[in-house]
Structures are given as C-alpha cells and as structure tokens.
Amino acid sequence: MRVVTVRDFRDHASEMFRSDDVILVTREGTPAGFFLPWDTPELPVEVRREVFLRLSEQIGAQLKAKGGSEQEVLGDFAAARARR
Questions:
Q1: Which residues contact 70 (CB under 8 A, 6 or more apart)?
Q2: Structural domain containing residue 17
Q3: What is the pLDDT of residue 39?
Q4: Less CB within 10 Å around the terminal CB: N or C of the chain?
Q5: Are residues 26 and 59 in the same domain?
C-alpha cells in the first residue's frame, strides 16, 4: 500500500490512477480516503449499496446543517429542468 498526502494525490492523480497499488490518502497525517484500483466495469452490489448509504448520510447531514429539505432540492431540480 502506498501512502500519499491529499496534495500529492491531487497533483499526481492521473499517474496514480494507472497504478495497481492501493493508495491511502492522508490529510494532516490522518486517513482521508483510499484509492482502490478496479479492473472490472461493474462494482459489486455490496459496494454500490455502501457507497449509496454513505453518500445519502452525508448529503442528509449537509442539508440539515444548512436548514434545507429534500423537497427544496427536488423543487430546485424541477425548476432547472423547466428552464432548459
């Protein structure tokens, strides 16, 4: 496993995406994320489910922190589509 900082990952991302190494990305010395090389076009259902759950939780927390609602977001999308 290779360990890099967020800045190094950003600056050398295209090179790292071609690598077969698992990469731990750190921010201020603590883990911020992983890059896992993937050689198949489909993600397993379990991985997709976990990603969906994590993203949903994070989006929900951000909406709550900003005092927004799901209905407001859906309304914004509908308005944007109507303007096209």
A1: 63
A2: 1-39
A3: 80
A4: C
A5: no
Ordered per-residue pLDDT tens for the chain, 84 residues = 899 999 999 999 999 999 899 999 999 999 999 998 888 888 889 988 998 999 899 988 989 999 988 899 899 989 999 998
Tally of structural domains, the chain? 2
Q: What is the 3-state secondary structure (H, E, C) of the chain?
A: CEEEEHHHHHHCHHHHHCCCCCEEEEECCEEEEEECCCCCCCCCHHHHHHHHHHHHHHHHHHHHHCCCCHHHHHHHHHHHHHHC
Dihedral of alpha carbons 70, 71, 75, 76, sign = negative
List the one residue out of 19, 11, 18 whose CA is nearest residue 2: 19
